[in-house]
TrEMBL record:
GO terms for biological process: regulation of DNA-templated transcription initiation. Signal peptide: none annotated. One of its GO terms (molecular function) is DNA-binding transcription factor activity. Residues 9-66 form the HTH lysR-type domain. The keyword Repeat does not apply. Pfam families: HTH_1, LysR_substrate. InterPro entries: LysR_HTH_N, LysR_subst-bd, WH-like_DNA-bd_sf, WH_DNA-bd_sf. This is HTH-type transcriptional regulator CynR. PANTHER family: NITROGEN ASSIMILATION REGULATORY PROTEIN NAC, TRANSCRIPTIONAL REGULATORY PROTEIN NAC-RELATED. It comes from the Bacteria. Transmembrane segments: none annotated. It comes from Paracoccus haematequi. Keywords: Activator, DNA-binding, Transcription, Transcription regulation. Belongs to the LysR transcriptional regulatory family.
């Protein structure tokens, strides 16, 4: 048994406990809720100290509740649901109608901000009803212009006329391939001898890579052009193909941590992307509390994530 802490239990730690149970492991839960795995592990250890007992049995990348953990899971799940229902009623009856905001997000950016941003809005700005749409950068620009979304989390646009653009994070690009990879850093010139999978030229990432290569007098000729991130990862997992790719670091951070892929940062100028918050200047204003929460989440990502500047 673990020595019991004399203080009460932190509700946030109980939510983390539920997340680990739901995802079956610490690393998967950390990715899903958007925090660093060591921070999540520490919160669970503190919860175990609060309760006075071990809550998980860890087996490789998996985590299974102990007998006490399973008992806690049954009761916490029930009472957490009841508590969330009370909070929902308070919002409806006492805070008045919600402020509805629709946020568009690029698919490669979404895992960085969600579900952590949803949780922060629910707790700190309950009057905001946040809806999220995932789409590629060009589509998000069209949705902004049409008034279908109020804000977008996207990459720095090449044309900013009529837009209010707030830079949030600079993310480095990496070469990803089945391990082992040769070095911690490579140059674009080193990629010319690889069997590359790259997105097609309609995608901003491909245009960024091509511009950086052109500035360095390099021509990259991909063996395959694939736009689906999941399909790219599937091709990389087949070591017989000998493929490599170029992606934002966060897109392959889980695979790198688990050892199924190796990554190398690319040192050349321009091999990075700027994540921005974008609003159409002619559109409605966004609640300051929401933009503040988005910026706070970006600071957390920079502090805890890999490959951010």
């Amino acid at each position: 048994m673990i020595a019991m802490s004399p203080v009460g239990v932190d509700m946030r730690r109980l939510r983390y406990f539920l997340d680990v149970c739901e995802h079956g492991g610490f690393s998967r839960a950390a990715v899903a809720i958007g925090i660093a795995q060591p921070a999540l592990t520490r919160q669970i250890k503190l919860l175990e100290n609060d309760i006075g007992a071990a809550l998980f049995i860890r087996n490789g990348r998996n985590a299974v509740p102990t007998e006490i953990g399973a008992y806690l899971l049954r009761h916490v799940r029930q009472h957490m649901g009841e508590l969330e229902e009370v909070i929902r009623r308070v919002r409806e009856e006492l805070l008045g109608p919600p402020v509805r905001v629709t946020l568009g997000v690029c698919p490669t950016i979404a895992p960085l901000f969600f579900p952590a941003l949803h949780d922060a809005v629910r707790k700190q700005s309950p009057a905001i009803e946040l809806s999220v749409i995932q789409a590629y950068s060009g589509d998000l620009r069209s949705l902004l212009s049409a008034g279908s979304i109020d804000l977008s989390l996207s990459y720095m646009p090449s044309e900013t006329t009529g837009l209010a653009v707030t830079p949030l994070l600079t993310e480095r690009l990496v070469m990803a391939a089945p391990p082992p990879v040769p070095e911690a850093e490579l140059s674009l010139a080193d990629l010319t001898g690889l069997r590359l999978i790259l997105p097609s030229r309609i995608h901003q990432l491909r245009r960024l890579i091509d511009r950086a290569a052109e500035r360095n007098g390099i021509r990259l000729s991909p063996a395959l052009e694939i736009d689906s991130l999941n399909s790219v990862k599937t091709m990389l997992s087949d070591r017989r193909g000998g493929y490599a790719t170029v992606l934002p670091c966060n897109s392959v951070s889980t695979e790198a941590e688990e050892g199924s892929l190796g990554i190398c940062f690319i040192r050349d100028e321009g091999m990075q992307r700027v994540i921005t918050l974008i609003r159409d200047r002619s559109g409605p204003d966004c609640p300051d509390s929401l933009t503040g929460l988005i910026e706070a989440r970006a600071r957390d990502i920079r502090r805890n994530g890999q490959g951010f500047l």
